[in-house]
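Support request, please re-run this one:
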Amino acid sequence: MGLTRRQAIMASLGAIALGGCSSTARTSRHPRPIAPWAGYPANPSNRTAYTPVQAPPRQTIVQPKTPGVVTPAGVAAISRSKWTRTGPVKSKVNAMSGISKVTIHHEGWTAVNFTSQSATAERLEKIRKYHVGENRWGDIGYHYIVDRAGRVWEGRPIQYQGAHVSQNNEHNVGILVLGNFDKQSPSSAQLKSMYHTVAVLTKQHKIKTKLVRSHKEISTTACPGKNLQAQMNALRRHVG
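Re-run finished. Output below.
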């Protein structure tokens, strides 16, 4: 039986959501990709009050759970090989050539409530396939992904520029916190791992605190959602 018009529209919107958290994210020096978040509101109308989760003290920050590899950037993470067998398209990626910035994102699709490694691995592979197949990028756009259980996953290899902030991917580490933080709040485990990961990066690469930013602090976008954006000042105080 054929899809109704409403079913077709909803299916299309689900596909659009996989594209990334901005309509402008792309790898520097490559042609502009297909707009991934078409129609996603730059300024959401939902302004309900939100009380940020208190920043965890430095001494309680521990290594991310189940590290599988320590990447060249010094971050302990589950190896990329645990969620995909496909490497980057070398002709579509550029060398990172040093790290001096960190940008925080959310997925911005459906709310994420799963915590298993298998479900997370499936989600990451779905995002990668959309970024490569629909957006024509060389790989998943982000370097690290933090799941609901607080595990950190290796995304695009850190030696390559990401595709997460338009005209600002050079030397910029993209961290995706899995979820839609206009619809839900980040878990305590996610916040602890995000704080730890950013602290490792800023210390090892001598990144200036002012260059630890959210996506919306660089571009016109709703990313990383109001409930994660509320954590940014506390994050900078923690790593500063």
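The two ends are 58 Å apart (CA to CA). The longest strand covers residues 101-106.
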